Amino acid sequence: MKIARIILFSPLAFIRLLLVLFMSAYVTIIGWFWLKTKGFSRRMQQWVAGTWGRTILFICGIKVDKNEIPKSGNYILMPNHRSYIDIFIVAAMTPAAMVGKAEIAKWPFVALGARVTNSILVDRKNQKSLLITMKKIKESVNSGIPVILFPEGTTYKGPLTKKFKNGSFKIAADGNIPVIPMAIDFNDVNDAWVDQDTFVGHFFRQLGKPLTRVTIRYGEPILDNDHKQLQEKTKEQIESMLKTIQSA
Q1: The Phospholipid/glycerol acyltransferase domain covers which part of the protein (predicted)?
Q2: Helix, strand, coil proportions of the chain in percent (round to 5)?
Q3: What total of structural domains would you count in the chain?
Q4: Which residues constitute the domain of residue 136?
Q5: Which end of the chain, N or C, is more open, meaning fewer C-beta atoms within 10 Å of its C-beta?
Q6: What CATH number should be reported for the domain holding residue 20?
């Protein structure tokens, strides 16, 4: 009954949810056929991630104000994390292999989508999974496919960032991989998906609005063989960009 009431009072969000599911299935299936017939390629990975992300942003009325990402070779992109919407944004703007929680494999099309985009799902409670993830990140970057990793490990309403986890910075420092910081901030702080809020509840409440405005900023690449210094510099850049966005 509760879901029925939500649908009744949020018809726009319901239509958007159906379109999101349809486009996720469509893009993933095309990617799967591409993978089976031609094998994995960076071109395929960019098309699947980019097409999916841009289409979802359009469907959901998400308008993004952004600067240009600095030109860099292989890198790890590290954004702060406000909502599941961040995933659509980074896929649309910076198609790359994503590192995410293993739990999201239960979402529709996620497991297959991870295969066709070379994304990495990690079980943080499993030490073996963490070691495999570290290896996969290095392999992805070394093969020319950048990696997107949220260093907070979970969503946070802000205004700045939570404590960053160490593991991702150790990978970058040990592998001599540049980190590009990325700041994500919603014009409406209530667009963040945090605490015990359910996905369906948040989706219908937030995407029942005609328009959602988001600002993103890419920072300058950071290279440091000391993972603590790398972590500190990345956090400083992201928080500096967030402060600039919020003061505009």
Answers
A1: 75-187
A2: 55, 15, 35
A3: 1
A4: 2-247
A5: N
A6: 3.40.1130
HSE-CB for 240 with a 13 A CA cutoff = 10
What gap in Å lies between CA 117 and CA 168, rounded to an integer? 20
CA dihedral 164, 167, 171, 172 (to 10 degrees): 10
pTM as predicted? 0.90
Angle between helices 42-59 and 110-117 (to 10 degrees): 140
Residue with tokens 């150790």: 170
Give residue for tokens 């970058």. Answer: 172
Amino acid found at 26? Y
Which residue, among 176, 171, 151, has the nearest Cα to 161 in the 3D structure?
Answer: 151
Strand partners, 214: 64, 186
- In angstroms, the CA 151 to CA 148 distance is 10
Residue 219: C-alpha distances to residues 72, 147, 183, 237, 238 (Å): 12, 16, 8, 7, 7
Distance between CA 160 and CA 235 in Å, rounded? Answer: 9
